[in-house]
Amino acid sequence: MGREKPKNNVMLIISIMLGYALTYMDKNMIATAIIPLETELSLNASQSGLLMSMFFIGYTVMQFPSGWLSDKIGPKKVLLISMGTILIATIFFGFVSALVLLMVIRLLAGLGHAGIPTSSTKVVANNIQPKQKMFVQSLILSTSGIGGILAFTLGSTLINMSWRYAYYGLAVLYAVSIIMIFFFFPKQKKNPIGGQEKKEDKVKISVVFKEKNVFALFAALLFLNIVLYGYLSWLPSFYETNFGFDLKAISITLSINAILMSVGALSSSIMVDKVFKGNDKRFALISILVCAIACIVFAMTNSLVMSITMMFIFTLSSNAVFVTLFSWPHKLIRQEVIGSSIAIINMGSTIGGFLSPTITGYLITAFGGNYSVAFIAMGLSAVVCGFVILLVKTKPVSNGEYKFN
Q1: Which of 85, 114, 246, 304 is the most buried (most CB within 10 A)?
Q2: What is the rounded distance in angstroms from the CA atom of residue 182 to the CA atom of residue 177?
């Protein structure tokens, strides 16, 4: 069957990017939708945090099963099932009004979202040449910014009319994405860059659990996502409470911030290759230190200009770190078990995503609606992430990749 034609690879990547963008639109939009939801359902910060966190319980539970299935039955099937589950959850979220039902639906959405990163990474591993993998992975992850832009422009416009309309509109976009995945994902079971996929069966799954780097990256992404999802969850409420922003002002500010998410993601692979000469670890350590400092200054300043400046800086730096850590497995981990490995690594992300809104929501409530302590806690979490990154072991070999220990 040979290699995929370049034009097919382009459509394949575009299909993944659209699906990824919509999942990030979903993750970002809840932070804005929670404002009218709090009013309609009379929720406090702790209840809002719990509602946002339910998504990550489902995400965490399905991480490893979806990764294992991506290795065994193929990423296309996993991706279609995942997107179908999200579509159903999104439609129903717009219909219900009870807090318990909304929490159950967000849990279901999380179950669906779990299959997106594992199956997408598996597709990249199987269909993209080794030298291009990190760039393509960073390109896909840069759609976090596109998803943010969609959330804070299209999503916010619909939320201004009714938060329910926003979720109906999102459901339509998910349906388009499912159609693209069905038509543009490769059908053959051959691995275009290295033989038959069934060779993967010869690599025991126990290999993944013996790899220390998998668990180091798991921990690093856990602490990093406490920062990422903490500030994504509470930025709209922060600017409404501290600076009196309305939804329009919030949407404009966070749309610019979303653009910087993509810039941070896209620049990471370029910076690693051109400036840091392939030293991923040094780049990640410098970026996470900048992120920590910016987050703490953001929490302590009363100046709107300084606040927005620091927000932009920790957006750039945190997303650069995220993409670097999430792309590292293409260098550190065997292709045959990358789906299962990414599942474990991304489980750290989802646990961090679950803990963050809940912990920060509790801190905000405990300190009488003061957001400063919550954002300082996020900055300290970034510092811990830096210490964990030091534990990642990289052993360069002649082809520019790393040994699988």
Answers
A1: 114
A2: 9
For the range 207-212, what are the long-range contacts, defined as Cβ-Cβ under 8 Å and sequence gap of 24 or more? 207/334, 207/337, 208/337, 208/340, 208/341, 208/344, 211/333, 211/341, 211/404, 211/405, 212/391, 212/393, 212/405
Residue with token string 């919550």 = 374
CA distance readout (Å), 199 to 3, 189, 315: 17, 11, 40
Number of other CB atoms surrounding residue 96 within 10 Å: 13
Name the pTM for this structure.
Answer: 0.68
* Burial (Cβ within 10 Å: 0-12, 13-18, ≥19) of residue 404: middle
How far is it, in rounded angstroms, from Cα 29 to Cα 156?
8
Predicted confidence (pLDDT) per residue in 128-140, tens digit = 776 677 677 777 8
The highest-level CATH class for domain 6-183+205-389 is mainly alpha
Q: Judge contact between 79 and 116, C-beta under 8 A.
A: yes
Token pair of 302 as six digits: 């009363």
